[in-house]
Amino acid sequence: MSVRRLIAVIALAAAASLGVSACTATGSGATSRCEVSGCTVTFDRGVNAQISVLGVDTELTSVEGNLVTLTVAGQQVTVPVGQTGSAEGLDLTVQEVTQDKVVVQLATGL
Predict the structure, then answer these.
(1) How many CB atoms lie within 10 A of CB 12?
(2) Residue of 109, 54, 51 whose CA lies nearest to 84
(3) CA torsion angle for 99, 71, 52, 20 (degrees, to 10)?
(4) Would the N or C end of the chain have less CB density within 10 A of its end CB?
(5) Is the pTM of this model over 0.90?
(6) Other CB atoms closer than 10 Å to residue 29's CB: what's the count?
């Protein structure tokens, strides 16, 4: 298990044990909403959209048709809309792609 993933798991577990129901964060052209099950990230299209989620830097690299390419901790992964891929120990599910935004669920698999 990578150090980043371990830190993310510990932070998520601590939040759950303290009764924290959700938290939000913002990045350059992106926002996230995290709960015990994981984080939902909304990336703005047409900008350099990036955010740090669960201790991992995540960037929207490109969208071509129904394929979304993300860079997660330096690793590129392409995921079709409605499908799940993985990178850096995270499960990445592309939930929605519109002209203005891309919505991705990131989960640790716990």
Answers:
(1) 22
(2) 109
(3) 80
(4) N
(5) no
(6) 18
Q: Which residue has the higher pLDDT, 85 or 5?
A: 85
Contacts of 88 (CB under 8 A, 6+ apart): 2, 4, 5, 56, 72, 73, 75
Report whether 87 contacts 61 (CB < 8 A): no
| pLDDT (tens digit per residue) in 75-92 | 999 999 999 999 988 999
Listed residue (88, 71, 77, 81) closest to 104, CA to CA:
81
The answer to whether the beta carbons of residues 23 and 41 sit under 8 Å apart is: no
- Residue carrying structure tokens 């990045």: 27
